[in-house]
Amino acid sequence: MDAEVTIFDKIISGQIKANIVYQDDLCLAFHDVNPQAPVHILLIPKQRNGLTQLSKAQEHNKEVLGHLLFTVTKIVELVDELKKGFRVVINDGENGGQSVWHLHLHIIGGEQLTWPPGSSGSSKK
Q1: Cα 28 to Cα 25: distance, rounded to the nearest angstrom
Q2: Which of 34, 57, 64, 85 is the most exposed place for a label (fewest CB within 10 A)?
Q3: Residues 26 and 69 sit within 8 Å (Cβ to Cβ)
């Protein structure tokens, strides 16, 4: 059984409006309401099927996981600002920065991105 209803479930059902970029039978992509770059799109599976986070993936999730990554290429074709480059991020778990317990990919771009991303908050010794 999946976790409680998330904001993404409400977007999929139409209870909450979103600026949709792309959708098909398996997934939905929309602009993040709190963008971290000029272009910040979230890509989610329409059915969680236990995919609250990537580390929970099982054998039966392989098809949708591959579909999500392939769909990124379709989104790049639709969004000109991503054609010069982009980053795909999956936050997993509390320490990974995950805030919604429904697997989602962040497609980020529209500017020169730096490396390394994020911060560990601790010094390396």
Answers
A1: 8
A2: 34
A3: no
CA dist 38 and 31 (Å) reads 10
Q: How many CA atoms lie within 13 A of 23 on its CB side?
A: 14
Q: What is the pLDDT of residues 51-106, one digit of tens each?
A: 999 999 999 999 999 999 999 999 999 999 999 999 999 999 999 999 999 999 99
Query: Is the distance from CB of 111 to CB of 37 less than 8 angstroms?
Result: yes
67 is catalytic: no
Cβ–Cβ < 8 Å for 21, 78: yes
**For the segment 10-22, what is each residue's pLDDT rounded down to a tens digit?**
999 999 999 999 9
Cα gap 93→40, rounded to integer Å: 20
- CA-based R_g, the chain, Å: 15
User: Which candidate in 60, 67, 102, 104 is catalytic?
Assistant: 104
Q: Is the pTM of this model over 0.85?
A: yes
